[in-house]
Amino acid sequence: MKFNQVVQQRIDAWNEVSLAFGPLLLGESDDWATARRNYANHQAQHPTPAGVSVQEIHMAEVPATMVTPQEVINDRAMLYIHGGGYVAGSPSGYHGIAGNYAKLLNARVYMPDYRLAPQHPFPAAIEDTLAAYRWLLDQGIAPDSIVFSGDSAGGAMTVSVMVAAKREGLPLPAAGAALSPWPNLEHSGASMLTRDGIDPTVNLAGLNLMAKAFLNGTPKSDPDASPIFADVRGLPPILVHIGEREVMLSDAMRLAAHLGENRVRVTLEVWPDMFHVWHLFAAELPEGRKALERAAAFLDESLKAPC
Amino acid sequence: MKFNQVVQQRIDAWNEVSLAFGPLLLGESDDWATARRNYANHQAQHPTPAGVSVQEIHMAEVPATMVTPQEVINDRAMLYIHGGGYVAGSPSGYHGIAGNYAKLLNARVYMPDYRLAPQHPFPAAIEDTLAAYRWLLDQGIAPDSIVFSGDSAGGAMTVSVMVAAKREGLPLPAAGAALSPWPNLEHSGASMLTRDGIDPTVNLAGLNLMAKAFLNGTPKSDPDASPIFADVRGLPPILVHIGEREVMLSDAMRLAAHLGENRVRVTLEVWPDMFHVWHLFAAELPEGRKALERAAAFLDESLKAPC
Questions:
Q1: pLDDT digits over A105-156, tens only?
Q2: Between chain A and chain B, how many beta carbons pairs sit less than 8 Å apart?
Q3: Quick one: which of A100, A199, A217, B10 has the fewest CB in 10 Å?
Q4: Residue B159 belongs to a domain with what CATH number?
Q5: A129 belongs to a structural domain
Q6: Chain A CA closest to residue B271
Q7: A152 catalytic, yes or no?
Q8: Does residue B307 lie in a domain region?
Q9: Which residue in A109, A114, A111 sits closest to A99, CA to CA?
């Protein structure tokens, strides 16, 4: 499939800003700040929809961004967990996805700026995101008015932070939507080989470097790092979105199967021709917009009905 | 989970009428007609929704039942392929599901009364259903106004008849919904063991007997008998519904994965607590009604918009 020129140019630009991470992860360079800033600035080029306001806040100790639509129903809130392979990405690159979600769900969207590897390896990202969720609950927002979503590493954390919350005895949110999740750091899914080179933005070699930086010696099969191995019993309904061109295709399907085997209500959607986190392209690609609409509809079903 | 008394009684009655097939399949009895009649009569107790008419017709050489709602949009048609392990079941038992679909989709629902094993083993059922589809096309109904759905053996045929149609060069329908499909006669999915005895209506021993009668020596892995092995490239969007208590859970998830790996747009929904073809219980169980509504919404998205 040929994408239109705007989409193709953004994919090319994504690859350009991603290239800088290779030398950093290999220890041949150390200017993480510049590479991360360029990456976030690239992502921020996806437009923020009209009619939302953006504020920098703190969720307990964790810096965060809150995106607010014109109308919020019932104190509804989404915890959105951005991607970036646990080494890059920041809320500033996700005003587009968050703004779309905020309008579609009439919910405030909270994006924690969790700590990144290799400076802050596993489990820092999960700890910070769990702290942000605990802070949301401490504000008095009912758990059945809260949903999680996230992409890539954040798609895995959509599940792993719920598992951590369950272990801590916290009430669970109403539902979750894992967009192009990276749920298995063992990379044992067949598509890691069959889609390598076909996924236009992610490749196996890059994922191996990021996984190593994040894990810092923790086993790849640690259930908090790879939720396909986690005790997911009792989790709320989960939607998994995965593109058919993605290297993560097989592992995302395995995540859905693992959830289903463990009595979690799960919906898996495989989108032909789509690539890693095509939801970022909601403004440029009809499938991006449509995918966010479907994710919002799935989450909306589990949220408390308006009083 | 305890079901309400009406549902539990019907499950018990289903098991009662199913028991008769054991001696038949083992060759210890030969009154197939009575067993099949009792089975169909039991299924016919699920109520037919108001506002549909039911006619016996022929689709070419194949006897069939047509269910018509008060309003039909754009000549829309569904080919509904009933279940019954390839040895039992008939359209007379499916006026409920067909009537619900007819009203939800504003479509005529056609149910071929395909030949059954062991009298007519593989591939008779698939040949008859394919002939019925060819007849629908011959009536001048546009393929993009046609959808397939089916349950259990008919859920597998929802895919295998599309594969056969593709092989014959026929145009494909707009979409399909496989309800609790039985897609792998090798029975290699883990849930064949982990859910045996938990699925309240189907068990592995019974499936093995029915598969043997149907296959009549054909290998279990024949792609027309077990569509998890079929060449499914180019198929239209497919929805897979499976209950989390079903022995077919793992194989249904494998069907979804196989479709996704082969670039088919696929949605898999795993429903906690649900059992084999709970859609039959649309009148008695809220989840049955809800599942048919979701299947209809999925199919509707792919059908030609009203002119």
A1: 999 999 999 999 999 999 999 999 999 999 999 999 999 999 999 999 999 9
A2: 71
A3: A217
A4: 3.40.50.1820
A5: yes
A6: A265
A7: yes
A8: no
A9: A109
